[in-house]
Each structure stands twice: as structure tokens, then as C-alpha cells.
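User: What would this chain look like folded?
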Amino acid sequence: MSQGDGPAPSNLPAGVSLLENQVAGHTAAQGCLGLLKPTGDDAGTVLKPTGKVQCGIREIAFYERLEEVRRRHREAGEDTEEEALWTALFRVVPQYYGHPKLTVDGREVEFIQLEDLTAGLEWPCIMDVKIGRRTWDPLATPEKRRAEEGKYKACRQRYGLCIPGFQFYAVRKGGALVRHGKDYGKRLTEDNIRDAFLLYLNATEDGRLSRTLLERFLADLRIIRDWARKQTTFRLYSSSVLLVYDAAQLGQCGDSALQRNTSLNASNGQTAAAAPLAVKARMIDFAHAFPADASEAGTVDDNYLQGVESLVGLFEQFLAAEGNVD
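Assistant: Here's the prediction, encoded as C-alpha cells.
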């Protein structure tokens, strides 16, 4: 998840630590305040600094809007046509737990508290896919626009998306952790971006993938795509889709990257159902979510839609490819 600039933390408050799984955005290693991981009663959540004031206001407003729809849905049990479009997002946006304030290095910092999408995963594989050919928002300065236009240009122009960072546990290498950051992402083009996804998805040496893994990602990605095909309220800039799964559930370590539906019960030689494969695609980062202006009224966000359509298309191509078997 991305967040705004802040100081590198040297004196974190009690009950929180740095989140080790952050794959993109501003991190402590870059001299910024990155994502934090609470303990105790708040375990299972993450704390994201709101960064610049207006960015925080916009992001909190997006989550609060979704929570208001959730509240009305629980109370009434039915939705208006407009609300039904937003209730679809309950499955593909992290659960929101408010915006607490903590004192970090002597200053008060506001955070957004969200569900930890990696909670309970043994080998969490995480990819941040930034959505949109255009990533700068309407308030960006000319300098900011030029800087943004030069980033990840090859992928953004062709697919309307880019990959700022990802990590995966390589099943064929005994679960070795591999991390790639923005330098890797900037080298990706329309000719080799598929290779990044194949790495992340733990393809076998001959390029095979788990059909179960792809189908479960597509179930979430299609919800996001269908929402983007209809929603006309917002324009999302520099927003991401976070892909998460547990590589420990992919076959036998060092043997195969394909999903197994059963596992051997060593005590009696019987086969038992394996744990369901943990897979999630979630919309994140709404610091640059702007209401559609008058000239855009009634139209969809083509910039965001292109990226989501491309992401769905890539996964559908993998699923259709010969050799993708369970």
C-alpha cells in the first residue's frame, strides 16, 4: 500500500512495529514512515499513515462512504440501484476500522486502520499493481505531471497499469523469499510484463500455473472490473489492486508450483482435503480519489477501467493457455 511522505520512525509507540511485508509506496528504508503493524487487540490490522492532509481527507472519505453504504445495507437488508453498485465492493476493499492518531517521534500522526490482508498466511506473496495510464490527479503541479508521465511509461501506455513492487516465496526453491521493487518494475515493457506475473504466480519451469489460483484471483478481479464498468461517481488516480496469496498452499515445497486439491495424511495413508487456497485481489490506495466533475457526469472512469480490463485480460490469457492444469 502506498502512503505519503513522513519521517523514518526511530521511536515507535508501544504496541506497533514496522510492517515487514510492505512491497510498494514510501517505506522506512526510504526514510519515510511506512505501514505499521499493531499487536494485541488490533492484531490482524495495519496502520497506514495518511500523509499529506488533503490526501488523507480524500482517502478517509472514500472508506467512510463505503462504510455508510455497508451500515445502511445491514439495517435495511436491501439497496438502491446506486448502493448495490457499492455493496459489490465489500468483497474487494479491505475492511476499514477508522482513522486513529498516534504519537511518532514526538508528533501526532493520523493513520487509516485496515484489515491485514496477509494475516495467517505462512508464505504471503504480494503484488502491488498500480492502475491507470494517468497517475497524476487534477491538482498535480506541472512538475508532478511530468515526473509521473515518465514513470513505468511502457507498461502504462500499453496496459494502463504498472508494477511498483512485489514479493513471492519461490516454491521451486524451497520457499526462498524473492522481492522486486520499483527498479524492476520500471524495466518492464509490454513484451516482458507477463514474466513478472509468471514469477509472482510461481509458474513451473515449463510455464504452468495453478488453475485454482488463477480462477480465484479472477473471481475478485471481475468484481472490480464490473464495478469500474458502471461507476460514474469517482475518478481514481494512483490507486492500486493488491494481489495476495499463500504460496505454502501450492503443492509440495520444491516439487511443483501447481495447486493440489488433496494432501497425504501420513498417519493412516488416507487423503484429506487441503486447506482452501487463500487468494485475494483488493482495491487499495484512495488518496487521489476525486469526485467526477460536471464535464464527466454520467461517464465511467476510462483511465481506471483500462488498467483493470488489462489485468483481467492477462489473467484470462494465463487461464486459457495450454498446460494450465491442476
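Residues 6 and 49 are 8 Å apart (CA to CA). If you want, I can go into more detail on any region.
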